[in-house]
Every structure is written in structure tokens, then in C-alpha cells.
From TrEMBL:
Residues 214-298 form the SPOR domain. The keyword Repressor does not apply. Residues 132-158 are annotated as: Disordered. This is Uncharacterized protein. InterPro entries: SPOR-like_dom, SPOR-like_sf, TIR_dom, Toll_tir_struct_dom_sf. Residues 1-128 form the TIR domain. One of its GO terms (biological process) is signal transduction.
Length: 298
């Protein structure tokens, strides 16, 4: 699991490399390689990294503001409230992201002092906390990487590893005890203990099955809101508010649409057969949701 998922346009790769170097110098791990290995899919490789990241940094530039994929990745960060936008160029962010303050590092040059870049690092530290144990091997900014400092980092890492080992052992004993309890209970009652799904999740699954059976064909959606996997109630409230406003919205599971970011509840209208019909509906939706946008779902 990476600390930072870096979303950017391929045209900005040269500038992004400098950004990655600076982030890694702080001790954070960064996922930014967009080459999908043979045998992998977008959802299994990049989609999983996006879902597991602790922070999503989107780099807005002349190129990336036009990228559908960058917008999709940024939407994941916004839904999980871990999005940190930065400006490589002085451009307005796409609709749906303009209310989130972006760090303007368009004037930053690698290796040179920059107040804006220092502020960005401080903001990331507040989100990510202290660097992981592996970061102990990294010297503070401006200090050489000496063998003595490396030894200190390795010693600290061994100490942390020892504490983690003890903690894992204790958790394993606890888990075995819980499993034993349920086995004994099953033998005594003659029933297998099977936890029931939570009511909201079961209702959402039933709704998804019904909606899929009755939904018209088409690929284009009007997205009026995206919510994290654990925030179904907020998605339902948003859907109800828009329904009361006269909009025919529904709550869909993004996992049913291969081109949407995975594991989100999406309040949407559609699907529509073409982008033109989706855009016609979008004009109505924006009277209530100014940041709504169209998106091809499959």
C-alpha cells in the first residue's frame, strides 16, 4: 500500500519525476508508474493502488484537466476526503473540484527553496502523519546521508519490527480464541455461525440487482455525486434530495461499471445511449448540482 497515489497526465511525466523524488525524500512511498504489467487489468493494478492509497495527489496541468482518467482518479480521492490537488500550471481545476484548495507549485523548481512547496509538504504531513519506519534511513532535507545516520535508521527499524512481531503474535492468539469459541458454540447448538450482512449493505445489493434488471441500455451517466464504500447513508440522502427536486436519480454501485473508479456509491442519472443525450440531461441537473458531469461507465 502506497502512502501517495499520484494522478497526472502522461505529458507531464518529466515534471512529475521531480515531484516523486521530493515526496520519497520525505520517506513516503509513491505509486505513479502507469505501465500496467502483462496479465493485469486497470482495475486489478491501478484501481487497487488507487483504492489502497492513504492520500491521492492530483497534478492539474494544461494536459491533465482534459484527461478523463485523471478526473476519475481525483473523484476517488474527493469521495474518500483524501484528495490533495496541486497546480503544475496556472489553470482552473475541472468542474467538480474547484471548491478544493489547490497548492500552486507552478513556479517551483527542483532543488530551489519554495515557500509554496514547503507548505505542500506540511499539508501532506498533516494528512499522512510521520513517515513510515523505512523513512528513518532518509536524512533530513539538506543533510548528507552518512553511514552513521543509516545505522541509526536500521536500528530504529529493527526495534519497530520487533514491536510489530509481538503485536501480530498477540492478535493471532486472540483470533484463534475467537474462532475456538464459535466452533464450540456451533457444536453445542448444532448450527453454523454465519454473520448476517448489515441491513444497509443488503438493501443496497438488492436495489442494485433490481436496478440492473430494469435499467435501460447505454454507457453514459450523469454523475451527481460519489461517496465512499462506507458512506452509503450520505449517498441515499443526496439521492433523496435530488429526487425531491424532480431529478430521476438512482444510487449505483460503481463496481457494476468497469470505467468507473471501483468501490464507490454513485448518485447518477442514466445510463444514456450517447454523450449528446447525457449532456442534455446534464444541463438540467446542473441547476441543482453545479458540479455534476457526464461520464462513460462501460
Amino acid at each position: 500500500m502506497a502512502d501517495i497515489f499520484l494522478s497526472y497526465s502522461r505529458e507531464d511525466e518529466a515534471r512529475i519525476k521531480s515531484l516523486v523524488t521530493e515526496f520519497e525524500a520525505q520517506g513516503w512511498t509513491v505509486f505513479w508508474d502507469r505501465r500496467i504489467p502483462a496479465g493485469e487489468t486497470w482495475r486489478s493494478y491501478i484501481g487497487t493502488a488507487l483504492q489502497d492509497a492513504r492520500c491521492i495527489v492530483v497534478a492539474w496541468s494544461q494536459s491533465s484537466v482534459e484527461s478523463q482518467w485523471v478526473a476519475e482518479e481525483a473523484d476517488e480521492g474527493k469521495a474518500r476526503k483524501i484528495l490533495v490537488p496541486v497546480l503544475l500550471d496556472q489553470v482552473p481545476a475541472p468542474r467538480g473540484f474547484r471548491e478544493i484548495q489547490a497548492a500552486d507549485i507552478s513556479g517551483w523548481q527542483p532543488g530551489q527553496a519554495s515557500e509554496r512547496f514547503t507548505e505542500l509538504i506540511g499539508d501532506l504531513r498533516r494528512i499522512l502523519g510521520k513517515p513510515s519506519a523505512s523513512a528513518r534511513e532518509m536524512p533530513p532535507a539538506g543533510q548528507p546521508f552518512t553511514p552513521e545516520r543509516k545505522a541509526e535508521g536500521q536500528a530504529g527499524g529493527r526495534s519497530m519490527h520487533g514491536r510489530r512481531t509481538v503485536l501480530v503474535a498477540l492478535l493471532a492468539v486472540f483470533a484463534i480464541g475467537i474462532a475456538g469459541y464459535f466452533v464450540v458454540e456451533s457444536l453445542q447448538t448444532g448450527k453454523q455461525h454465519v454473520p448476517s450482512p448489515s441491513i444497509p449493505m443488503q438493501v443496497a445489493r438488492d436495489r442494485a440487482v433490481t436496478a440492473e434488471a430494469t435499467r435501460p441500455g447505454g454507457s453514459w451517466l450523469v454523475v451527481a455525486g460519489s461517496f465512499g464504500r462506507d458512506d452509503l447513508q450520505s449517498a441515499e440522502r443526496h439521492h433523496l434530495r435530488l429526487t425531491r427536486a424532480g431529478l430521476d436519480t438512482t444510487v449505483i454501485d460503481s463496481n457494476d461499471y468497469p470505467l468507473l473508479a471501483p468501490n464507490l456509491w454513485v448518485v447518477a442519472i442514466g445510463p444514456f445511449e450517447s454523450r449528446e443525450t447525457a449532456n442534455a440531461a446534464l444541463s438540467r441537473v446542473r441547476t441543482t448540482v453545479p458540479d455534476a458531469y457526464t461520464k462513460m461507465g462501460r
